[in-house]
Amino acid sequence: MLHPVSRHGLTCINLPFIRFTLRVPRFVSSGTLGLYSLPITPKNIHVKKVGTLTLPRGVTLSDAQKKTIYALSTPPGRAGVGVIRVSGPDALTVWRAVVKPSKSLRDNTPEPWKLYRCRICHPEKEEVLDDGLAVFFKSPSSFTTEDVLELHIHSGRAIISSVLAALSSLPFCRPAEPGEFTRRAFEGGRLDLTQVEGLKDLIDAETESQRRMALDAARGAKRTQFEHLRTEIIQCLAMVEALIDFGEGEDIEEGVFEQARMRAIKLNGMIKGHLNDRRRGEIIRSGIRLAIFGPPNAGKSSLLNFLAQREAAIVTPVPGTTRDILELSLDIGGLPVIVADTAGVRATDDLVENIGIERARNIVEASDISLCVLSLPDILTVTSGRPSMHTPLTLKTLFKPDTCFLLNKSDLLATAVSENDIRQLLGNKAWVTSLSTGQGTSEFLKGLSEVLQDRYDLGDDNSSQTSLITHARHRTHLESASRFIDAFLEYSTQDVVLGAEELRYAAQAVGKISGLIDTEDVLDALFRDFCIGK
């Protein structure tokens, strides 16, 4: 009589008079073996070892059962070195199957964290695929907290394809999903969600400020700050719950609820201080949106070409040449800037041009910073030696308190005007240049960089200057925590139970930022944006 027992997704069948347990997948019935409908008897039981699992012969592992993953972790293409990473319980088995060290090892077991010169061979054909290096990382002291094998090979297309094909022939291995290595590091407790986000941002960083901010997050600085906020909320909650458990008696000091309120007020002030950062961290991460606007033929497209150092926009003397938005991502002063060249703003009966002008207005209003380009000879008049400017009325509605001005075509002025006179009319964020001759362009670029640095730069002291909020979800959860604390502060000692519940919600909201309290859809959305080998 057979007695199947379900355990860990497998069915364990105990055969009488035999001192071992046959472990077969759930879909194998208690009276058949594999797909062959053979009666299970001690005479016809044949098992095979597949990695770390023992299965009946003829049964293959599904992708869900293959716990060892592999992927190319360096960009594809010709290069000196390519790295293929393997992670999972069978990483050491992969070593023994494909790695042939130049120096013989006892039981072909490598010393962890030591780089070996070796030949990479096909596990079945025993064909040498490449000469390279291999290193084995023993769990839990690895990136994923699992056994990890790295193969350092020549990064040629044919070599990489052959090694990946060799790994695919191993029945217990499968290709990794996007971000799966990092997800295993998160699930193993190596990283929290803020470090995962910082790691992805570090890979995607294109400017110095993005690199510094992402490195700060990847190293755990934000994790520490969020944990501090959550700990403070929990301490307030502990004080309130002490009142619930013991009441205002001799075991509890007087004024405990008031102390909790004062701590909550201070804590809420810290959270709101982070929320009132003008989205500085999010803007640096995604890029500062700079809109170039002005009348036709003022030099907007010429400015874009100057900033890009190439012919990115068409430049002609015909008004209305630019009719749509042209955007470029640039590095200005170490900051990521998305520059948008817009259509010239003027009154016109042209239907297509009017659509472009309306889009230009929308871009300027939505931008983080705007730069108005004006033709100096068209707007400047000098009367009795005193300069004055006449800006078109169609542009004045787009001016903001922080709008910058570039006065172009200074080489065409009949009368020389000092830059100090210009700044008295337009403020300190105005520069006089000639984009055709290059006059004043270096001063303009330096001045624009200083404006951006003053408003968005991280500063030299990263620990004190870096914005805590760098992703929209950080802001959402902190806003929720602040609302729950506000709700707690509305309660009196008569409603201490309700107040404690609000603090509990606030702690949960902050915990969601670092992943202490997670939701599966957030994790899926985060890790699927990673590259395959990470």
Automatic annotation (TrEMBL):
SUPFAM superfamilies: P-loop containing nucleoside triphosphate hydrolases, TrmE connector domain. Residues 290-375 form the G domain. Residues 193-531 form the MnmE helical domain. Transmembrane segments: none annotated. It comes from the Eukaryota. One of its GO terms (biological process) is tRNA wobble uridine modification. Its main location: mitochondrion. The keyword NAD does not apply. Keywords: GTP-binding, Nucleotide-binding, tRNA processing. GO terms for molecular function: GTP binding; GTPase activity. GO terms for cellular component: mitochondrion. Residues 68-190 form the GTP-binding protein TrmE N-terminal domain. It is found in: Mitochondrion. The keyword GTP-binding applies. Belongs to the TRAFAC class TrmE-Era-EngA-EngB-Septin-like GTPase superfamily. TrmE GTPase family. This is tRNA modification GTPase TrmE.
